[in-house]
Specification:
Strands 1, 2, 3, 4, 5, 6, 7, 8, 9, 10, 11 and 14 form a 12-stranded mixed beta sheet that branches. This protein has a two-stranded antiparallel sheet with strand order 12-13. The protein has one domain. β4, α2 and β5 form a beta-alpha-beta unit. With 241 residues, it is an alpha+beta fold.
Length: 241
């Protein structure tokens, strides 16, 4: 039996004490649904960061349509949200909007963008997520900024979690290098989403794994609490705000 706390407990704890990792680069900390693929070809992801070094805390929903085009929604402008790193991967401008989160239970989250999206995510702790969480919580901070270690962890985490190829470090579309530290994890066991009145259907891996630069979007729903580092300057200067 796993002893992992519920995602609600962990998400509320990081909101109460949003401790950023040390460093002189750009950093975020918080909770997220790293990604969730649907049989219809749509893809959704959530980021809920109560603290960031480059602006106020923010929430962001990522949506990829069946043609592979991304749209990034956030509660802050594109230059102060995920489009800061990923915006050049899409012709769509970042959308600033309200994003509401409501924990229906310790294991179930409802995400709403008023007038656009209603998305429920039901989670569970599994043997694999429990193992990865125990490892993640015990690792020293210096391990999460060691790219050789992150490469090794990536090779182990993908098969262990059944989420496809994983890259915890690399380069994002806007040119910055990144390092991701998932310290607590849970699996998505059920989900439904309605976008602009259309049911996105059942959860199912994509025929081809989605990617944004070196970042690989998981082929199976996974939720995490953790933090990330990004270079302060992009290589190409593109943001699409």
């Amino acid at each position: 039996m796993t002893t992992s706390p519920s995602p609600r407990e962990a998400a509320l704890a990081v909101h109460e004490h949003p401790t950023l990792p040390s460093g002189d680069d750009e950093r975020v900390v918080g909770f997220g649904v790293m990604g969730l693929p649907f049989a219809s070809g749509h893809y959704l992801a959530l980021r809920d960061f109560p603290a960031a070094t480059f602006g106020p805390g923010y929430r962001s929903v990522w949506h990829r349509d069946p043609d592979g085009t991304w749209t990034f929604y956030a509660t802050t402008p594109g230059t102060q949200s995920c489009s800061r790193y990923f915006g050049s991967a899409t012709p769509n401008d970042a959308v600033q909007c309200d994003i509401d989160l409501d924990w229906l239970s310790p294991w179930s989250l409802l995400v709403r963008i008023p007038g656009l999206l209603e998305w429920q995510v039901d989670t569970a702790a599994t043997a694999a997520t429990g193992l990865m969480s125990r490892i993640g919580r015990r690792l020293p901070e210096r391990a999460w900024t060691n790219r050789m270690f992150l490469a090794a962890m990536s090779r182990a985490a993908g098969p262990a979690l059944g989420i496809g190829e994983t890259r915890l470090s690399g380069t994002v579309p806007n040119g910055q290098r990144y390092m991701v530290a998932p310290t607590q994890l849970w699996s998505v066991i059920r989900s439904y989403a309605v976008l602009r009145g259309t049911d996105l259907g059942s959860v199912e891996a994509l025929d081809r794994q989605a990617r944004l630069g070196d970042f690989r979007l998981p082929q199976k729903g996974i939720c995490v609490v953790g933090h990330a580092h990004f270079d302060g300057q992009s290589a190409n200067g593109l943001t699409r705000a």
